[in-house]
Design brief:
The protein has about 90 residues and is an alpha+beta fold. The chain contains 4 helices and 5 strands, in the order βββαβααβα. It has one domain: Nucleotidyltransferase, domain 5. The two termini are about 25 Å apart. It comes from Parablautia intestinalis. InterPro entries: Integrase_cat-core (IPR001584), RNaseH-like_sf (IPR012337), RNaseH_sf (IPR036397), Transposase_IS3/IS150/IS904 (IPR050900). This is Integrase catalytic domain-containing protein.
Length: about 90
């Protein structure tokens, strides 16, 4: 699975959309939107993905190394649901 954030310009300012995509099924399985780009934004998208997934045990979850994805809360949630975070793999190599 992969996750990322995109920016959407609106008349009221930026809207941030976080998504989680299942590459095997080639579809978006988790989304979250907010007026601020916070770790809660990506956590909400991951929780949405978990609700739409039978099991994430052993599934690799890839994202960039931005602060939101590196946050302890996001990494703990991913680990709790059995994801193998590409960030943690990268950090283990260093």
């Amino acid at each position: 699975m992969v996750s990322d954030i995109t920016y959407i310009p609106t008349d009221e300012g930026w809207l941030y959309l976080a998504g989680v995509m299942d590459l095997c099924g080639n579809k978006i399985i988790g989304i979250s939107m907010d007026g601020r780009m916070t770790k809660e934004l990506v956590i909400a998208a991951l929780k949405d993905a978990v609700r739409h997934t039978r099991s994430a045990e052993g599934c690799t979850l890839h994202s960039d190394r931005g602060s939101r994805y590196c946050s302890l809360d996001y990494q703990a949630l991913a680990k709790e649901h059995g994801f193998i975070s590409s960030i943690r793999i990268y950090m283990d190599i260093l």
